[in-house]
# Entry
Amino acid sequence: MPLLLLLPLLAAAAVASPLAGGAAAPTPIPTPWPDQFHAVVLTNLTESGGRLQLIDLYYDWPGGRNLNLIRGQLSGDPTYDVEWTNGTSFFFDSASCRTKLFPVGLLPPDWLVDGAVYLGRHAVGGFDCHVWTKVDFVWYYEDVVTHRPVRWNFFNGMQQHVMSFEVGGVLKDSKWQAPARCFSDQETVGIAGAATATGRLQGEDAKFDVMSSFLRFVGAPAQAVAAE
Ligand SMILES: *[C@@H]1O[C@H](CO)[C@@H](O)[C@H](O)[C@H]1NC(C)=O
Ligand SMILES: *[C@@H]1O[C@H](CO)[C@@H](O)[C@H](O)[C@H]1NC(C)=O
# Structure
């Protein structure tokens, strides 16, 4: 009986609300990142065969660099992934170093603004978020009130949860320096650019750029994704 009474009311509310609210609200636009920030990110790779990781992320757009300090669960030796805007990335731990050359620079602060598709509001981890997807590759959750990123998910199930987000957080210069072993006579691995590989259409090139920039940005964890 109460339900029967409620149904017409709900239907009336659904019809009435767009009128009552006047013009439809504009589609929310993702907030560009600050030029510099420090975030602590919990990365869940278990769905793609990996483990949990705790990552200190230092994004430094004016400095032309981005750093992921990656600690795997119950693993003592952290991995550094230092990206420079010229395309060079250094992946090193206390014993080894790999250098990679990417065909893309850093992910720009407004990387999500162009071409993202708005998917509406969802609650994640107790936060009310706007959600966008870009090239069906990444799903991005932004807090409706504070505009801070809360989470980004990858197409293959990798999830990154933002545990803290410190605007203007920087890491001192000496910490960005790759160790000497990165500059000894070891090989540099070039990551092939699909743009040059297959002569794709422009739209597809743009799509590749976003995907490779984001893969680069999330660094070592994403390699597990890319290898699938
Ligand atoms: C990690 O992701 C898997 C698959 O989505 C999920 O079942 C699990 O609860 C997640 N773990 C954490 C700590 O978020
Ligand atoms: C890119 O910049 C970094 C940091 O200055 C440097 O170590 C590296 O050699 C540069 N790479 C290229 C290809 O110039």
